[in-house]
Amino acid sequence: MRILAVNDDGWKAEGIKALVKEFAGNHEVWLAAPELEHSGTSHSTTFFHDMVVDQIDYPGTKGAWAVWGTPADCTFMALTELMPVRPDVVIAGINNGCNMSLDCIYSGTIGAATEGLLLGLPSIAVSLDFNGPKHYETAA
């Protein structure tokens, strides 16, 4: 399976590291994540300035980019400009913190997954209410 991993906590976050590590052995994983944390940005997108995209070396991925934009921008850029092939699924997370009830309206993690859905792909948002590498590995 070909997976696009995105998040709202930034490409250096522990949650996305655990996600990539879990799937990299048996699946083709691509990554597009914000250069900086964008928690609480919902489904906001960039319209009024150019986005900078830096290709990065990310263990376990077929290709990876740090995007100077929102989580939804990351999904959009990966699916429309960056990836040479279409993924089978978008997985957003693992979010540092829970997304429950009204949190879902504001979640950048859910915004990233929703962008994948709007572009025609099955999409999953994963959130975790406990911090620490062991918890992320369990969630992955």
The secondary-structure class comes to alpha/beta
Tally of helical runs: 5
Instruction: Report the order of strands and helices.
Output: EHEEEHEHHEH
According to DSSP, the number of beta strands is 6
Strand content: 15-25%
Q: Quick check: average pLDDT?
A: 91
Q: Let me know the largest β-sheet.
A: 6 strands, mixed
Q: Estimate the global geometry from the Cα principal axes.
A: globular
Instruction: Report, as a whole number of angstroms, the end-to-end distance.
Output: 16 Å
Provide a descriptive summary of the structure in words.
This protein has helices at residues 14-24, 71-82, 103-106, 108-118, 133-139; strands spanning 2-6, 28-34, 53-55, 63-67, 89-96, 123-128. The chain is an alpha/beta fold and 140 residues long. The longest helix is centred in the middle third of the chain and has 12 residues, at 71-82. It is globular, with a radius of gyration of 13 Å.
Can you lay out the helices and strands and say which pair or pack?
Elements: E1 2-6, H1 14-24, E2 28-34, E3 53-55, E4 63-67, H2 71-82, E5 89-96, H3 103-106, H4 108-118, E6 123-128, H5 133-139
Parallel strand pairs: 1-2, 1-5, 2-4, 5-6
Antiparallel strand pairs: 3-4
Helix pairs in contact: 1-5, 2-4
Précis, in short:
By secondary structure, the chain is of the alpha/beta class. It has helices at residues 14-24, 71-82, 103-106, 108-118, 133-139; strands spanning 2-6, 28-34, 53-55, 63-67, 89-96, 123-128.
